[in-house]
Specification:
Layout (H helix, E strand, L loop, with lengths): L7 H15 L5 E6 L4 H17 L3 E6 L3 H14 L3 E4 L3 H5 L1 H10 L3 E4 L2 H5 L4 E5 L1 H16 L15 E6 H7 L5 H6 L2 E3 L1
Parallel strand pairs: 1-2, 1-3, 3-4, 4-5, 6-7
Antiparallel strand pairs: 5-6
Length: about 190
């Protein structure tokens, strides 16, 4: 697909902000990235590091590009007693949403992810572009190309709708109270 962006790196400061509100006691935040997509991972690391610094939080970087590396990353999180995790946006992680949510629950880690599927699978919170809305924009873009427009002449489409999904069941299981300011902004609250 060309001409459409999910704006993942640009969203990372918001992820850190939301996670800081949800787990204010956590002085250390971890970031899980896929090293197999080095340019994107490096940019995400930079963005999250800046956001963590701005919030006065230390940042630990964990890398996983396979299922076994995901398991190892969560073992490391538990060993280091890190209770807050930003899961970087990545197609591999998107395919592992159920696994990531289950591991975050098993290890009692407050985690945020870009796709709503993470929260609906039992993850704590997600914030990111509406996938359906973004795909709709991609369809319009393809329609323009099929009608003769040159892709090089078309601007890159950015998301116009973002979704904040909070899973209250998971918050209760983690012993967290979701601040009213987050609940008021949520597009969906799973009870």
């Amino acid at each position: 697909m060309t001409g459409v962006t999910f704006m993942t790196p640009e969203l990372t400061p918001k992820w850190v902000e939301l996670l800081s509100e949800l787990a204010p006691q956590s002085g250390v935040i971890a970031l899980l990235v896929n090293p197999n997509d080095a340019p994107s991972a490096e940019r995400t690391i930079r963005e999250v590091q800046q956001a963590a610094d701005a919030k006065g939080r230390q940042l630990r970087i964990l890398k996983a590009g396979t299922e076994s590396e995901i398991d190892a990353a969560f073992t490391t999180l538990a060993h280091l007693q890190i209770g807050a995790l930003v899961i970087g946006g990545d197609p591999f992680f998107s395919s592992q949403g159920d696994r990531l949510a289950a591991l975050a629950a098993r290890y009692a880690i407050a985690a945020i992810y870009e796709r709503r599927e993470f929260a609906t699978a039992g993850g704590l919170i997600s914030y990111g572009p509406s996938v359906a809305g973004t795909y709709r924009r991609a369809g319009i873009y393809v329609g323009r190309i099929l009608n003769g427009a040159k892709p090089a002449d078309l601007p890159v489409e950015q998301p116009t709708k973002f979704e904040l999904v909070v899973n209250l069941k998971t918050a209760v299981a983690l012993g967290l109270t979701i601040p009213p300011s987050i609940l008021a902004r949520a597009d969906e609250v799973i009870e």
